[in-house]
Design goal:
Radius of gyration: 21 Å
Helix content: 25-40%
Largest sheet: 8 strands, mixed
Number of strands: 24
CATH class of the largest domain: Mainly Beta
Strand order of the largest sheet: 5-4-8-2-1-13-16-15
Shape: globular
Number of helices: 8
CATH superfamily of the largest domain: tricorn interacting facor f3 domain
Bound molecules: zinc ion
Amino acid sequence: MIQDEKDTLQQFPTATRYELQLILNKPFAEVEGQEKITYWNNEDVALEEIYLRMFPNNAGDLMVVSELQIAGKESPINVDFENTALRVDLPTALQPGESTILDLAYTVQIPTDFGGNYGLFSYIDGLLALDQVYAIIPVYDDEGWNVEVSPPNGDMIYTDPAFFTVTIQSPVELVIASSGVMVDEEEKDGIKTQTVVAGPVRDFYLAASVKYATVSEQIGETLVTSYYPEGYKEGGEYVLEVGVNALKTYNDRLGTYPYTELDLVGTPMDAGGMEYSGIVAMGIQYYDPDVVFSGLPAFTYLESIVAHEVAHEWFFNIIMDDQIDEPWIDEGMAQFLTSLYYEDTYGPSAASSYRESWYSRWNRVDSKLMPIGLPVRDYTEAEYGAIIYGRAPLFIQSLHDDIGEEVFSEFLHTLFVEYEWSILTTGEFRSLAEEVCNCDLQEDFETWVYSQ
Ligand SMILES: [Zn+2]
């Protein structure tokens, strides 16, 4: 953490602690994992069970838990939600303020194709992408445990801040990019063991390859590093340049990025990019400056993807929203902040031409007046892309235009101060905006957000 955030570490004495031991061996067909979770009941009700989500199983039955101990006692393994969740039945209910320890042993098969999760969990062309290679505890709220079979569109992580200590054993030549910072590294007989710590974070991601090279730049207290496979130097350097400028814009417009490291990594995926805590991944297909997609150079896409994914460090990681029930908040804000990146980097006309992309997205469903505030499952795939990535930033832009630049800018700073490491709901978004503008936004929200 940067100096200003050092106190943050003391703010979460009862946040979930994950201790992972991962073994990555050639030919990287599977990961062997051990996971120890220290979980405190921070809710105001006793808990009979704890759910752990197994996201690798969204792409097939890849993750198998072979052993579960609750407070040191061997326990039965119950899977649920089409094998995407582990249900831990506690021998006695966990009272508010009490903690327990779960120990798991597991293996995860690594697919060599894009599979069912856009390739975010894969080993393709010598690049290893491990999107949540462990079991993670979702948010418990007034709906109970936020666990379900994930809808095919949209993001899946909805978690409270947690702390990770991850030990990764791998061949020495493997270059690893991950959430958090490396605190220890040992080498013996061609095997290296790295210890990485991260937190407070929403998740833990890692990508690795023997082909990765890096280029870095220090911005304030944060070291920004771009990881790119050999042969993609131009793309890797471009990603660093965009990432650095995006970081500067959001530091300025919202509040300073809290970690000492931000990693940007290129991986094969059937998507533009994906956000994780302290690290973002971009589709490697956009790293080649000579490639053209739909008449536009790959770098045009790459620039907006990097700016968008880096913006998620503020909306998703620092400020979480329910990505399944209210996806407009983090996706709409990430899109809107991308326009501020263009404005601060090149000026207002670049920002307004980027904003055209929101209209073209929305146009894909004929600019249908569909509310932006619906859960992922209520949109078709086409509607999700058009409404959440097109109409949602247009709403935020219209809010900005209504309340004016100065008040809107105060709203952004206040959001950061009030909701850092918390969960932001649509209701809270509205009341904070109303508080800052000292105005009634009922009509705005009815026009854009709420279903009638
Ligand atoms: Zn996004």
